[in-house]
Amino acid sequence: MSRKPVIKSFVFKICIFCLSAVIASCIFQESGFTAEKNSPGGFRLVSVGVGDPDLITVRAIERIKESDIIICRQSVEEEFKEHMEGKTVWEGAFNEWRTWDQDCGEITDREKREKCINDQKVREKLEQKIRKAVDEGKTVSVLGQGDLMIYGGPYRWYLEAFEDLDPEIVPGVSCLNAANANLGKDIMSGKKTSSAVLTHYRDIDKVAEHQPTLIVFTMHTEFEDLVEKLRRYYPDDTPVSVVFYAGYKKKEYRISGNLDTILKKTEGKDFPFEHLVYVGDFMK
Amino acid sequence: MTNLKNVFALLLIVPAIFLCLSAGISPAGDSGKTGLYLVSTGSGDPDNITFKAADTIKESDIIFCSQSTVDKFPDLLEGKEIHDPGFGIFAVYGKTPEEGKKISRFDYDEKMAELEKISEIIRKAVKEGKTVSVLCSGDPTIYGPNMWYMEEFADLDPEIITGVSAFNNSNAALKKGVTSGKKAHSVILTATFGDAAQYNGPDSVDKLAKNRAAMAFFTMFMNIEDVVEKLRVHYPEDTPAAIVKHAGYSDKQEVISGTLENIAEKTGENPGFEYMFYVGDFMSE
């Protein structure tokens, strides 16, 4: 029996195999499949802007489209539904983050301690899910509104827990930018100051001494309490403006006055979560 | 009877036609886009622009923007009537000729002439029902050079379309909660305009530093060493400090981290015009 035909046939089979492998790898590379399999996937925090959906950036939409798994609040899912078709959507720990940096054992109140422990379990489970997905080469994006690094409570947990994954943070419009636009003034044009302090109720005692321009992120503070505190540091004729629903074109509006008139001017108004308070003579 | 019917019909139809026509005539239909806009194109890469800004630009007839903006958004701006926005008018706007001529950086007469030209173009356009957009990068209300448009054309009720600022980009680059400091949960946005050493107003660097909140400097002409010296009046030497260069440009963005003690040295001679400087314990590990 001549060896030649056997060798020829063997070589022929090898060639076909190699050719198929090359073609297959080309196809897979085109579809990005190879890339995903060889390296771990990504983890990102993506800002979707604030207010109306059209305040999202082009980059953020691209990131959403590129993602396999999205973690976001239901309201955000609703807003960007068309870009999330076919994607897996998970619940984030948006109600279970507050005690992320606390030792539950140190909480004396039983109910609060139990919530702390439960929240921790929720976060741990979510962390496991995220890490598993990323190890499998998937791209996981957490979506949030505003600048996630400014008073972004839920996102601080993600930053800490997933620091080793070095997540990309995709910037977006903050309620600060949107409210600035509503005011229509140069916020740095105070008569005695060209600085502005982003602060909240509990910090005012620390920052108000030299009467800088203040931009108060209100986060469930009672407006009367805020005004009372401000009056300890600023003269009564200091201009104050409250911008409601910054970024929502149809709902956005503001009420302006002075420290001594603003309570009357806002009497009876509904104060939603989404309101920002400006204090300073740049508004004069 | 038929005459009455005809009159009645006319009374209904004519206003209806008028309404339809006016809806058609208005360039924006029901979105109300006529008049003057200050539009942020974002900061950093072109993909940091919002959809709202892009839409407003598309619907604009006349654009005021720099050549670098034209280069950055060639497709968006193709075919548009483009004019120079008059960088530097901010320095002399609202000043008397005497005060204005003391400004060395810009020529008062030249800038005022530019302002007049710009005003002519805008007012004529708006009168003709056209849409005019002045493009800015970043948040136009934070140390922006175009806020004078809001004053000069206040009667036209201009609208600001906001965008991502160098501040937002830098926060994202640092990957830290900028309001999550240990000493304070606030952040001070400030700038020194090259005057840190001499300036002694209520928001001088050393006074602001007293509360040890986070600080984010917009660094137009900033002298890092002068600023660090003033910060060290109240911040301990080992307070974290960082520079973010080219925030928002994916291929160029760079974070240089250190402490107050070594940040000037780490940054080197010429960090360039476009960078943010942060100090605060929110960056502590």
Strand order of the largest sheet of chain B: 3-2-4-1-5
Mean pLDDT value of chain A: 90
In terms of per-residue confidence, which ranges of chain A show pLDDT below 50 for 5 or more consecutive residues?
A: 30-38
Query: What's the story with the biggest beta sheet of chain B?
Result: 5 strands, parallel
Q: How many strands of chain A? A: 10
Q: What is the share of helical residues of chain A?
A: 25-40%
In the predicted model, the low-confidence regions of chain B spanning at least 5 consecutive residues are 22-31
Which structural class do you get from the secondary structure elements of chain B? alpha/beta
Biggest chain pair interface: A-B, 62 and 59 residues
Instruction: State mean pLDDT of chain B (0 to 100 scale).
Output: 88
> What's the tally of helices of chain B?
12
How would the global form of chain B be characterised? elongated
The whole-angstrom Rg of chain B is 25 Å
Oligomer: heterodimer
Radius of gyration of chain A: 27 Å
Secondary-structure element sequence of chain A?
A: HHEHEHEHEHEHEHEHEEHE
- Beta-strand content bin of chain A: 15-25%
